[in-house]
Structure formats: structure tokens, C-alpha cells
Amino acid sequence: MNLLRIIIIVASVSLQGACSIGSVRHWDVQDGLVLDATTQNPIEGAIVVARWQGWISALVDASSVCYHVETAKSDAEGHFRIPKWTKLPGKVHHGDVVFSTYKAGYRQVHGENKKLYDVQSLKRDLGSSQDRLCYLFRLPTVLNCGVDGSEGQYYSVLNIIFAEAKQLFDGLVIVPQDLAVSYQVFRRQVASVNVDPDYKLSRAAREKAISAYLEGL
Fold first, then answer.
1. Which helix (H) or strand (E) holds 31?
2. Residue 52 vs residues 11, 81, 102: alpha-carbon distances, Å
3. Chain CA centroid to CA 2, Å
4. Rg (Cα) of the chain, in Å, rounded?
5. What is the mean pLDDT of residues 137-166?
6. What does pLDDT average to over the chain?
7. Phi, psi dihedral angles at 9 (to 5 degrees)
8. pLDDT of residue 116
9. Is the confidence at residue 61, as pLDDT, over 90?
């Protein structure tokens, strides 16, 4: 990989914060590995999400935008490939491509592979179901991206994350109120992107469709 530089950035955050991400300035095909941070063994079936971020110039200030998203799944050897993409939407200036990696039961971590910039590290999440749910509830904010028609890839990942969250939530014996509220917000996000991702329905029709979808979750 020529002039490839990936910096994994980790942040411990609140519900409104960001989870672990990586940053790279390049436009070419990205090959990499997903490894277990403890054993260094390859992890199969991890979802790597690459998000193209930039900014839109204005007369006074500039606003940031996440304008394109691509996803890839690691194979039996932990290998993943993010395809090349170089089409900038009008008036958008390219900034970074950031990487996040998800697999059920794991968290993305930083520090174990400092010299291997093309490696995404995951560690088994050994915390409680409630802590895991809080982590999952943050991911939609972190991964939300796409204004160029690519956002369908983000929606697919959102459904996969929700499947894990639902299984954990349904298994709770005692559910704190704040956790229940966050779960309902997450359910509505999932319903929204599945029934009307482009907001083409009227408000009344959209609410009816979301309610019907939620009944089946």
C-alpha cells in the first residue's frame, strides 16, 4: 500500500459521543486486516465501515459533511478490502476517510498494533449486557453517513447492530428506564431507515408506516 497511513483514534464517550474510529488520507483501494487485539488471530465476519468526510465552504464558515460510505466484511484470514472511490459531490472539499469496525460481541480498540497501520483491532466485550447496549446505542451516531446514494450501506449495518441490541435487550430481567428510552429511540431509527429512508412519504403516512414496522420488531 503506497503512502498509506491509518491512525486509529479511540475515545471514551457519553451517549452523544463517538466510538473508536480510524483516519486516513487516501483515495485508493484499501486493504487491511481485522485482528483480535489479545490473541492477534484474524477475525472473520467483522464489518469495516469507511466514511468519506469533508466540508462545504460558506461565506463566513464551513460545515462538515459525511458524504460517502463503503463497507466490507473480513474473510477467514481477517482480510478486508474497501474499494476505491473518488467522486466528490458538488461544493464538497475532501477531508479524511475514517474507519470503524463492528462485530457482535466485540469492541474496537487501539494500541495493540501501533506499528501496523492497516490493522483494525477488536477485543471481546466482557462487560455487562447493559454496558454493551449503551455501546451499541452510540454506534448509529458514529456511523451515520452518506448523501450521495451510498447511505444504504449504512442502513444495512444499522440493521445488523440492532439485531444484537434486540437480543440483549430481550434478555434483560431488569431494565433501567434510561436504557429503555434509548432502546426505543434506536428501534425508531431502524424503523425509519427501513420504511422511508429518503423521507418521501407525508408526515402522517411516515408515522403510520413506522408504527406498523415497529409492531413487527
1. strand 30-36
2. 20, 15, 18
3. 26
4. 18
5. 90
6. 82
7. -115, 130
8. 52
9. no
Please tell me the number of Cα atoms within 13 Å of 182 on its side-chain side. 23
Q: Which residues pair with 52 in a beta bridge?
A: 68, 97
CA-based torsion, 205, 137, 154, 213: positive or negative:
negative
Residue 8 · residue 20 · CB < 8 Å: yes
Q: How many CA atoms lie within 13 A of 204 on its CB side?
A: 0
DSSP-derived 3-state class of residue 29 = coil
Listed in sequence order, the residues at least 6 apart from 100 whose beta carbon sits closer than 8 Å to its beta carbon are 19, 20, 21, 22, 48, 49, 51, 108, 139, 142, 143
For 85-96, give the DSSP string.
---PPTTEEEEE
Residue type, 201: L
* Residue 141: other Cβ atoms inside 10 A: 14
